[in-house]
Amino acid sequence: MKFTAKQIASFIGGEIIGNENAEIFTFAKIEEGVPGALSFLANPKYAEYIYTTQSSVVLVNKDFEPNGEIKATLIKVENAYESLAKLMMMYEAAKPKKTGISSLASIAGSAKVGENCYIAPFVVIGENCEIGDNCSIYDGTSIGDGVKIGNDCLLYAHVTVYHDCRIGNSCILHSGSVIGADGFGFAPTADGYNKIPQTGIVVIEDNVEVGANTCIDRATMGSTIIHSGVKLDNLVQIAHNDEVGSHTAMAAQVGIAGSTKIGQWCIFGGQAGVSGHSTIGDRSTVGPKCGTLGNIKGGERLMGAPAMDAREFIRVTAYMKRLPEMDKKIKQLTKELEALKNKE
Questions:
Q1: Are 269 and 287 in contact (CB under 8 A)?
Q2: What confidence tier does 327 reach under pLDDT thresholds 50, 70, 90?
Q3: Which of these, 64, 78, 205, 234, has the minimum number of CB atoms within 10 Å of its CB?
Q4: What pLDDT, on the 0 to 100 scale, is given for residue 308?
């Protein structure tokens, strides 16, 4: 598929500087641009590459002013990064989509599959399942009895959805993700640990994306809930009876312990951890490798383990770097103090 700069500018409401007939058929990073590619410049750190890039078209913010010759055609927009995302979504949507049900898929007689779906070989769909319209389910995926999946969902290869779980519309589940495995519930006894049956389910609302090998455990009772618009990276662990608020994003290897409530529009850096039975307020930011203990008010920015205010963490880190020097000074002052005492 090919598009001209004029077509692209019209779609994203941009202003063309250069050849409006310049054609693009692929995307490339600005430093790796090739003829026929569309690139973008949003971070000033990469500004030097706009003068040497081989890309045919580059998206830039409206306030960008060049200080040298640029060969590429520019399209000025309010936000280059957001405009690029919009174009890439359009490009993906224009790709041909597979449809049809493979004869090698195993679909229970009581299951219902909507219109225009693609069911790949070796997919297993259990009894009384409901799959909405326009869904794509790739090879090796297992969908347990009683599962309900909405419209326009994409389940990549080897996804596992346990029995009775609920998935909304326009969700993406990447390979290896597991929805509805048992929560980590055991009662200690003198002889070991007795398993507590996990009788609840997982509810995933609309427009949620779940990364590869991410696990969302079913509730002990009731539901583990992932609200609309949540984005989970790879290798994220959501424990039983958790509730994750709308539009919250978690980077890789985040772990949320059980019965925790996460607010809306929160951000979690890689390997952050949250203790169980706690509440994280709306629009909180938990930094990479940060460990929270207890409740967090909304709007806080936290770093470190145990978690502390981000500005305080920066000050503490600065002091830590000076500890060897401070140790030497303390030892020297101690020697001098002892010497003074001995003279008395």
A1: yes
A2: confident
A3: 78
A4: 67
